[in-house]
Design goal:
Elements lengths: L4 E10 L5 E6 L5 E12 L2 E8 L12 E7 L5 E5 L3 H21 L14
Antiparallel strand pairs: 1-2, 1-6, 2-3, 3-4, 4-5, 5-6
Length: 119
């Protein structure tokens, strides 16, 4: 998945645990299913975190994939791999900070201690 991933499509269906499946088309034109984990803004850029919904040879189980969200000339979203290790580490550190902060404050919904809403 070293090339740009494009043509994302949010499906109307939901899978176990109420997670939305995102279909991304890789550089070989193959459709790959991912769970959308998070979208964050960091240093004036948007980043999208996905977890594979299927076994992929080059991605370990429970590993997330991070893309910088950019816009193509035609207005379509592009998920661009982050090639700079320093940028990737800073973005992932920010993601972890936000997760820890959310864990301290809860998700912000009214569903109580047994929350499973994935907010």
């Amino acid at each position: 998945m070293s090339e740009e991933i494009k043509n994302n499509e949010l499906l109307d269906e939901e899978v176990d645990f109420g997670e939305d499946i995102i279909q991304l088309i890789n550089e070989d034109g193959e459709t790959v299913d991912f769970y959308h984990v998070a979208t964050i803004e960091f240093e004036d850029k948007w980043y999208v975190f996905f977890e594979p919904a299927e076994d992929l040879a080059d991605i370990d189980e429970c590993e997330v994939v991070v893309f910088r969200l950019e816009t193509a000339e035609d207005g379509e979203d592009l998920f661009v791999p982050i090639e700079d290790d320093d940028e990737l580490n800073r973005v992932f550190d920010e993601y972890n900070r936000l997760i820890e902060e959310e864990g301290e404050e809860g998700c912000g919904c009214d569903c109580g201690d047994d929350c499973t809403c994935n907010h």
